[in-house]
Amino acid sequence: MSGPPATIGGVTAPPAQPLEKKPIKFSNLLLGAGLNMFEVTTLGQPLEVTKTTMAANRGDGFAGAIGRIWGRGGVLGFYQGLIPWAWIEASTKGAVLIFVASEAEYYAKSFGANNFGAGISGGMIGGLAQAYATMGFCTCMKTVEITKHKVAAAGKKPPGTLETFMGIYRAEGIRGINKGVNAVAVRQVTNWGSRFGLSRIAEDGIRKVGGKEDGVKLSTPEKIIASALGGGLSAWNQPIEVVRVEMQSKKDDPNRPKKLGVGSAFKYIYQQNGIKGLYRGVTPRIALGVWQTVCMVALGDIAKEAVEKLTGETVTAKH
């Protein structure tokens, strides 16, 4: 309930707007899922495969990783793990993130947080929920498919996707399928928090340079630049990503500890490859962040119009 209008210096100020809980619309979920599916099916998965290959084979440079991927499947090697794991992850990402982030943002504001603080809180909690709900087992299975030993070299038929999944489940249960999920959660929380914060800082800088007051909408190229800077700079947490890949990797290494936690994996990587090893794959990850930004921002308005025509709902999802 809002109180009566306040009078300041003889001028009646408009009453404070009550906090409203925005409904989760089907159009928002459809938009998020569609954009994520497009992103991962185009350049997203090849960059993901390159990033994961470099993180798992830390002696390889960028060119070495490209050669390794091409050698195991040509062009199709760059799409390993796309079906069904990357598609499952992409299609559920928007739904889980939008729903949980929206709820968390509402409650943060109800406790007095401003828009900036509520947005970061919503993004971090949404990222955490996404990691444990769907992203843990999806990233694990993608990494397994990218890094598993090729039995075809020994004349045997390599196991298929579901056969690989069931083999891990029978041997290690749910824990094996979700291996590395804690590292995924840490990465997602720091990703969304830093992307949001760094993008806002970049937006402020663009406004100052362009002489735009706060509240004036940025153009699409300006939004792309700000979001790309936020996405690219958020790769500072690449060591967590390398730890995640190492925990989920199926590569053969007798020197690696049998049971890896986040801490022991970090120590193992540092001992084997130093600081440089912890940042293997950062270049394709930055490129991935930029491509995700282009898809979500540049194609966002076009997608919103298409979804509105299809569903008759007004799309309110933010880029």
Written overview of the protein:
It is built from eleven helices and two strands. The longest helix is centred in the middle third of the chain and has 33 residues, at 115-147. The radius of gyration is 22 Å and the shape is globular. A two-stranded antiparallel ribbon has the order 1-2. It has one domain: Mitochondrial carrier fold, CATH 1.50.40.10. It has 319 residues and is mainly alpha-helical. Helix 1 (26-56) packs antiparallel against helix 10, helix 6 runs antiparallel to helix 8 (238-248) and helix 8 packs across helix 9 (262-278).
Quick recap:
This protein has helices at 26-56, 62-71, 82-110, 115-147, 161-177, 181-210, 220-233, 238-248, 262-278, 282-298, 300-311, and strands at residues 7-8, 11-12. The protein is mainly α.
Jot down its keywords.
319 residues; mainly alpha; Mitochondrial carrier fold; two-stranded antiparallel sheet; MCP_transmembrane; Mitochondrial carrier
Topology (elements, then pairings):
Blueprint: E1 7-8, E2 11-12, H1 26-56, H2 62-71, H3 82-110, H4 115-147, H5 161-177, H6 181-210, H7 220-233, H8 238-248, H9 262-278, H10 282-298, H11 300-311
Antiparallel strand pairs: 1-2
Helix pairs in contact: 1-2, 1-3, 1-10, 1-11, 3-4, 4-5, 4-6, 6-7, 6-8, 7-10, 8-9
